[in-house]
Amino acid sequence: SLVVLFGATAGAYGAKLGSDERELILLVWQVVDLHSKKVGTLHKSLVKADNLDLSDQCREVSGLTPEGLGKAEPLDRVLQQFSQLVSSDLKVLGRSSYTLCSDGQLLIRQVLHPETSKKNFLLSDCFYSFYDLRKEFHTCYPSSAAVKDQTIKTMAEYLGLGTDEAEEDFGVWQVKTMVAIIFSMLSEGCNHIFTEPETVKYKYETGPCLLWLLFSFFFFFLCSSKSETVDSETVIRARGLPWQSSDQDIARFFKGLNIAKGGVALCLNSQGRRNGEALVRFVNSEQRDLALERHKHHMGSRYIEVYKATGEEFLKIAGGTSNEVAQFLSKENQVIIRMRGLPFTATQEDVLGFLGPECPVTGGKEGLLFVKYPDGRPTGDAFVLFSCEEYAQNALKKHKEILGKRYIELFRSTAAEVQQVLNRYMSTPLIPTLPTPIIPVIPPPYTIATGSIRDCVRLRGLPYTAGIDDILEFMGDATGDIKPHGVHMVLNQQGRPSGDAFIQMKSADKAFMVAQKCHKKMMKDRYVEVFQCSGEEMNFVLMGGTLNRSGLSPPPCKLPCLSPPAYAAFQTAAVIPAEAAALYQPQALLPTTRTPQASAAAPPTVTYYPAQAAQLYMNYTAYYPSPPVSPTTVGYIAAPPGAVAAAATATHTPILPQPGALVRMQGLPYNTGMKEILSFFQGYQYAPDDYNGLIQLSDQARSVLQAPKEWVCL
Q: What is the pLDDT of residue 23?
């Protein structure tokens, strides 16, 4: 048996039904026995909406009024009556089972399922399977109009059914006409059989979306299996999601539409945190088109923007090639929780003990996945599998509880997020790229100005995007009066530009003229303040002190130190050729301790600068870490043998003139700075003032341009 069903909302009608989130206000239905071709009683029921403000189109088409709807029953009661009346009619016809039949997909997918999901009550099983009369009609009559262009009226006209819409109440005419169309399809000339109903998934299926890597320098991306591709016509991008929303929340937002297995991919920002966007893959383009109609529908109090996306975008977020991840995610229908902030020494036993017996992990240790860097170091992140929602909720209650000496954050996660996090950390190259080509340059010796002579200028209020090019352009003709290596950009504790810079001029007069000429001159829509200052004042700031209207605040230590070189003036990505990989050996920056004889015979280290920097302004250091200075060592990378031989005859002062003067520190916290290291060595004698007291250790896993984990102290 079929139950022919028709409905209307308080808003749009026809092809836009459900696109405006308006509530259901009318249901009309009738049972049809396909074997005996008998029908049950036709029922019409008004539904009381929470918002009785009807659109003009609704008033005109339906003839309903807010007053009449105010006396109706709410949706949950109407649906209960629907089930009872259908069961009663089936008994009269001698039948026991039925399937719904509606005019298109909108009433079931875009109205009933989303509305009941928002109102937190469940639909009965009959609403998860239905026949689309338009598709069935087109199958029976292939020469009729396309499915998307069909309406009840056009189908009736195609069959020549003489029904007058004006003679019947709204909804009643539609159901009677649909029944007449069905009987025509069952006639001897057609003998149509209803065999393949549309289905609505009961719940979203989680699971991995794997990328298979094929060689021959090409990547072929396949999802779930090697025969299934990701069609760009099935993917959308949802924007404006609450940051704490999970894949299940997104699936609930698209309730009524069939999302592909593992088809929700939450997007992360550069810090690994959710950015309020997600890519969602549906089972076919028809479902995707329906999803686009939910543009600016609401999730809680926030409206969600829905746009088209591509399969390539989805694969970039949801795809992965790790066998470890594939094995971890192979257990289906698991709830995934992400743990963040774990101690680096935490073991599987520690995590299981932290979670406790009230939230057992699926498979014990096999249900844990620690996120690590390519060299095996832990990141402090882990993913955990739970077999049911109850265990996951118990785990989430431990949010910000203490493990060791650190509080642990716990969040709901997804298979796609697991892939993204692993991809982000594992894709970090062991040999970071630098701008190419690189050319050897022997820099002339230079020193940082000291004393009270006011031959420096301070630039304050620089745009955070300003680089060396912008400063030189800002200085104009005065660029020629800058001392070699005299540009020093001040960075904050995060290694980002602070908006300040110091410039050493050739004389106090030149500094005075620049301050007068450039003060409050515009740079990228911002005016920049320029003040004359002394080398001593500049050094105070570059060493970590402050300079303001109240005067100087001294730095924590007056010893010359080299801070982490975390800022690069040039960030052009490049691929290092194979022959250049030998440049990045651990000994590139700091040779091992050697005897005085060996030290004296060692070839000089050669400084390398990007070709762009050397070509434009050879006298200026390519990288400007701060505090405190533009160092002589930060650009040092081992040069090819030819370049070293060419430099061997040049006058050169060794970086480490005193053998055995090094102490290597390992296992430092990642946020360790200069102040903490100096405090640790309080009371010990440091190197003389003409040497850098702290030098970053370089090896294949850490470039000299990254924030270090290890330091070498002179």
A: 95
Q: Are 57 and 13 in contact (CB under 8 A)?
A: yes
Q: Where are the domains of the chain?
A: 2-199, 209-219+228-319, 323-426, 456-543
2-199: CATH topology is Nucleotidyltransferase; domain 5 (3.30.420)
Tell which CATH classification among 3.30.70.330, 3.40.605.10, 3.40.30.10, 3.40.50.2020 matches the domain 323-426: 3.30.70.330
Which 3 state secondary structure label does DSSP give 317?
A: helix
Q: How far apart are CA 101 and CA 93, in angstroms?
A: 18
pLDDT tens per residue across span 101-146: 999 999 999 999 999 999 998 999 999 999 999 999 999 999 999 9
Indicate if the alpha-carbon torsion angle 653, 659, 661, 664 is positive or negative.
positive
Cα(487)–Cα(181) distance, integer angstroms: 83
Do 278 and 250 meet the contact criterion of CB atoms below 8 Å apart?
yes
- The answer to whether 565 and 711 have CB atoms below 8 angstroms apart is no
**Which tokens hold the place of 599?**
């030290």
Question: What was the pLDDT predicted at 278?
Answer: 92
CA 4, CA 226: separation in Å to the nearest integer?
Answer: 41
- Closest among 435, 510, 434 to 479, alpha carbons compared: 510
DSSP letters spanning 120-169: T-PPPGGGGEEEEHHHHHHHH-TTS--GGG--HHHHHHHHT----GGGS-
d(CA 511, CA 21): 66
The CATH architecture one would assign to domain 209-219+228-319 is: 2-Layer Sandwich (3.30)
User: In the prediction, which pLDDT does 11 show?
Assistant: 93
Instruction: Round to whole Å and give the CA distance between 116 and 632.
Output: 68
List the structure tokens of 157: 């006209």
Residue 670, CA distances (Å) to 127, 380, 406, 707 in order: 55, 11, 14, 8
Residues contacting residue 213 through CB under 8 Å, at least 6 positions apart: 219, 321
Angle CA 382–383–387, to nearest 5: 150
Report the candidate in 670, 555, 569, 556 with the shortest Cα–Cα distance to residue 613.
569
Provide the token pair at 281.
Answer: 């893959």
Element at 393 (helix H, strand E): helix 389-396
Listed in sequence order, the DSSP H helices in 231-337 are 247-253, 285-292, 311-318, 323-328
In this chain, the answer to whether the domains covering 2-199 and 323-426 adopt an identical fold is no
Q: What is the pLDDT of residue 690?
A: 41
CATH of domain 456-543: 3.30.70.330
pLDDT less than 50: residues of the chain: 210-228, 428-446, 556-657, 688-693, 695-710
Token pair in block for residue 73: 């029953």
Residue 604: predicted pLDDT: 40
C-alpha distance across the termini of the chain, in Å: 88
Burial readout 128-157 (b: 16 or more C-beta within 10 A, e: otherwise): bebbbbbbbbbbbbeebeebeebebeebbe
